[in-house]
Amino acid sequence: MSLRAIRVLGVKVTPGTLEELHREISRLIYQGKPGVILSANAHSLNLCQELPWLKAFYEQADLVYVDGAGVSLGAWLLGRGRYGRTTMAEWIWPLATYLADQGHSLYLLGNPPGVAAEAAARLRSHEPRLKILGTHHGFFAKTGPENQAVIEAINRARPDILMVGLGMPLEQFWILKYHSQVRARVFWEVGAAFEIWAGFQPACPAWLGRLGLNWLFRLMIEPRRLARRYLRGNLVFLVRLLKEWWAEHSPQNEAYTRSLPEGKPEGPAVQRDGQREAEFREFPGA
Fold first, then answer.
1. Which end of the chain has the smaller Cβ count within 10 Å, N or C?
2. Region labeled Disordered — which residues (predicted)?
3. pTM reported for the whole predicted model
């Protein structure tokens, strides 16, 4: 059974405990069609407000786990419930054991040259039974012969799960554009997680993580690259949350809010069709 969906800023999110997420991953592997796993944090939900194709992709995803404290806060503020978050920096170690127990295989695609290979080595050191069928860096042309060569390498391996770390939103777009050509059962976007698993970036201290301040730690590590995302982006996210809360709780909107069916999209359903594909081609760098 799929996890129950909630909505934060109109974006589908499917919270769950670690055990529930693990069971859902196995279900996706065996469901007989490609599955998609995405992360929900303040940055990704902000991007969904600005990129209609990305919001549509989240709507069609099979699993959208809570990756950021902002989404946990938003779910609580909007009355959706209290949910913990699951970050890939911490989740990967129990996940590796679960995947090994189940016999599920991985392929790591993305991040700078050498990072995915080192991440794979550390994962194997942590869990020798884990089947990692291959790795490839993310510095390749996303169209043409070079891209096709990467796809063919993945297809020779035929992993259960392809983890894609190309940076947001490029990684979502690559999955969207090429999933029909890739022989993997589940596509999972993971951002810069390989760099943390490989030890190229320090992991957030546990006490900061418990406070929901992973973003602050990352900002201190890479202030120039991440200042706009976290300083401006977190403020924009908070303002959007407050606007949504007001829209749902102001007296003039109470009747409308009660009329919305729970768990249903606020807008028209979006299908995987040629019309939407034309919009996807507008993504910069496609």
1. N
2. 256-286
3. 0.84
d(CA 262, CA 267): 13
Through-space distance between the first and last CA atoms of the chain, rounded to whole angstroms: 35
Strand duo 11-13 + 161-165: pairing:
unpaired
* Residue 33, SS3 per DSSP: coil
| DSSP annotation string for 175-236 | HHHHGGGS--SEEEE-TTHHHHHTTSSPPPPHHHHHTT-HHHHHHHHSHHHHHIIIIIHHHH
Contacts of 91 (CB under 8 A, 6+ apart): 18
* Backbone region of residue 66 per phi and psi (left: phi > 0; alpha: psi in -120 to 50; beta: other values): beta
The structure tokens listed for 86 are: 């699951």
Task: Say how far apart CA 174 and CA 166 lie, in whole Å.
Answer: 8
CA distance 47 to 233: 10
